[in-house]
Design brief:
- The complex is a heterodimer of chains A (279) and B (358).
- Chain A is an all-alpha fold.
- Helices cover 77% and strands 0% of the residues of chain A.
- Chain A is globular and about 65 Å long.
- The two termini of chain A are 22 Å apart.
- Chain B contains nine helices and 20 strands.
- Chain B has helices at residues 41-49, 91-100, 110-123, 139-151, 169-186, 197-203, 221-226, 231-236, 324-330, and strands at residues 3-12, 15-25, 30-34, 56-61, 64-65, 76-79, 157-161, 189-194, 206-211, 214-219, 241-248, 251-254, 257-260, 269-275, 280-283, 291-299, 304-311, 317-323, 337-342, 346-349.
- The longest helix of chain B is centred in the middle third of the chain and has 18 residues, at 169-186.
- The chains are: A mainly alpha (279), B alpha+beta (358).
- Chain A binds chain B through residues 168, 170-171, 173-181, 184, 188-189, 192-193, 195, 274-277, 279, and chain B through 49, 51, 71-73, 76-78, 80, 82, 84, 86-89, 97-98, 101-102, 132-136, 146, 149-150, 152-153.
- Chain A: It is a multi-pass membrane protein.
Amino acid sequence: MNLISKRHSVLPGFGLAFGVSLFWLGLIVLLPFAALVYTAGGMSWADFVGTVTAERVVASIRLSFGAAAAASVINAVFGFLLAWVLVRYPFPGRRFVDALVDLPFALPTAVAGIALTTLYAPNGWIGRFLEPLGLKVAFTPLGIVVALVFIGLPFVVRTVQPVLEDMEQELEEAATCLGAGRWQIFRRVLFPAVLPALITGATMAFARATGEFGSVIFIAGNIPLVSEIAPLIIISKLDQYDQAGATAVAVVMLAISFLFLFAINALQWWAARRHGAGR
Amino acid sequence: MSIEIRNIQKRFGEFTALDNVSLTVESGELLALLGPSGCGKTTLLRIIAGLETPDAGQVLFAGKDATHTHVSERQVGFVFQHYALFRHMTVFDNVAFGLTVRPRSVRPGREEVRERVMRLLKLVQLDWLADAYPAQLSGGQRQRIALARSLAVEPKVLLLDEPFGALDAKVRKDLRRWLRSLHNDMHITSVFVTHDQEEALEVSDRVVVMDHGHIEQVGTPDEIYDRPATPFVTQFLGDVNLFHGRVDQGHFTLGDFAQPLAEAPAAGGQAVAFVRPHDLEISRAAEGALAHGVVEHIHAVGPIVRVEVAAESSGKPLEAVLTRERYRELALMLGDRVYVRPTRVSVFPAGDAQDYVI
């Protein structure tokens, strides 16, 4: 603490600003977490284990994280491609497409859910062509992935885009002069430079997807053990006045999310150090 | 390997970057392309590299047409002003890049790559930084690494685009001397672009002065400096004082002043004489004077003394450079009335000359 308070800055009021922001962070972010853990602490260990290892709960948590992971991988690939096209190729209507990317941010998630369900339902616009192929999207885990891809896309595009924009043309020219082919330039020069941003974007999409509720419940169909997501389990437990049970599931989700974020932050830190930014 | 450039034409929209430029770079020489920004020097360099395609004209490498050869097959080393190092790779991997992207059949083995990279890093005196990342290096070090990286593929031609442009004055000076000695050892045909006339004159074997998309003069640094071919070259190479006069019967005349000319402009008439500050003598005697005026400013820091004289005829300030001894001898004071006499003039017909502004 001594180290912080002794630092001089052009702008006064560091102590006050620091205090207020810590308090705010605590109030808005840490306090709910603490309440969560505290509430779950009211259960006996046996009850807690019993609740979170129930077949339906395990299936729903697996589905939530599995679908989120699948969606963020898909978003990483296509979000990168979209960002690439938006940055690299001037085409008519580029600004329009660029604005379109933010739509999943702006749209109320329930609206997105209803729209996707109408599209992919067995009698929907797309669903009716997929049905004969034996491909069911709505009311299956696949539908959940589709919804999560939809809401996660802007995260990847918006984090990768500025990095691609800032990348100097000279890097590619230097690589070409050294005899590298297009694929080698992409794989060894461009992609590694974008990778940290891509990981960040995919992580945000993932984090958002694990907790996503509004857009998913319509298209999921909520069939127990098949397409029932963890947030829904929490809500249905609350509906049955089982607050402790709901909190137990929430704590497990929190723990898993935290582990994921921790791992990805460690990866980021490692990547940043490799770039010499740690100096 | 020699480079021949034939009638190169390049436009960017309405802007003519290169207007029918022809040039030969001799094998093993270090050539400077010198000119103000926008003169087309960088475009020419990029066309030689193949990073830009000319609208018309040819580029020949060792007598063979290379106009349509792809960059990656031209075997040129290119050094960028802002280094363009790969940030996510170590210094070692940066230098090794050109070797490791080769097709498997011609790619050197791991040991050989290691040996060659370390040899290059020793050459640029940075072998102790092999494991560092570019972000950890200073500007001068980065540029040396960029040079080592371009040399790793054993290029036939080395092209440098304002290689010292982003560095501070001291490092710049050291580095260009170092480049000169490196070139003396390696004798690789090199072309470098600069807008700094001092750099061009100090480092290169020959200088090409360019302006507005065409070549003004090609010559050794001595030739360019001592016998500038055009008013533009005269003005671009350093400070000059301008005198508007006439050419009559092989003499430049201005009022009572007359100086015989060795190579007089063919036709008589209006003419402009350029005199460099160190070719302008200050005296208290009126004899042989080109102009006279009042000492307006004396800048006496360092080994030389700069004196500004407000010319009585034109009202324009004239700049003269004196040695300290001469300055003491004259005992100049502000407000003194003095005469100036040129020891050397470059005369051009008036039509060619225009005030050049950087």
